[in-house]
Design brief:
The chain has 139 residues and is mainly beta. The protein is 0% helix and 53% strand.
């Protein structure tokens, strides 16, 4: 009895030859290229203001962590009043990423990346803190 062996994408195939069995052949499917995610090293800051609460903020973005941290300052004095670490929550119905955090376990912070594409310079973010909202632009 003759047999055919093939190696296709790391899997060895075996089928008897003749007697109505078709021998396996090498697959014509090309191997998929492996691409490392997050190849660029984009880092940016997204400054903005929440006018009602006299707050300026800076959101920090890295390709590895996303919108990971926000620092809140009094606009009138420049004094830092809070820092919060953000974590990805979900996408809204428009495909915009939502990130959430809390300041001292009391006030919630919400960031909405106002684009459905991956973050880049020039994108806008909307930040909610203590019930008020403001907008910033990433640089």
């Amino acid at each position: 009895m003759k047999a055919a062996f093939t190696l296709s994408l790391g899997i060895i195939g075996f089928a008897p030859a003749g007697n109505g069995w078709a021998a396996l052949t090498e697959s014509s499917t090309p191997a998929l290229a492996q691409v490392e995610p997050n190849q660029d090293n984009l880092q940016m800051q997204c400054p903005g203001s929440i006018l009602v609460n006299d707050i300026n903020y800076t959101v920090f973005f890295t390709r590895e962590a996303g919108f990971s941290r926000i620092v809140l300052r009094r606009r009138s004095t420049g004094q830092q009043i809070a820092e919060a670490f953000l974590s990805y929550d979900r996408k809204n119905a428009k495909g915009q990423a939502i990130w959430r955090g809390a300041v001292n376990g009391a006030a919630d912070v919400t960031l909405v990346h106002l684009s459905a594409r991956p973050a880049q310079r020039g994108d806008q973010v909307s930040v909610g803190y203590d019930g008020q909202w403001g907008r910033g632009t990433c640089q």
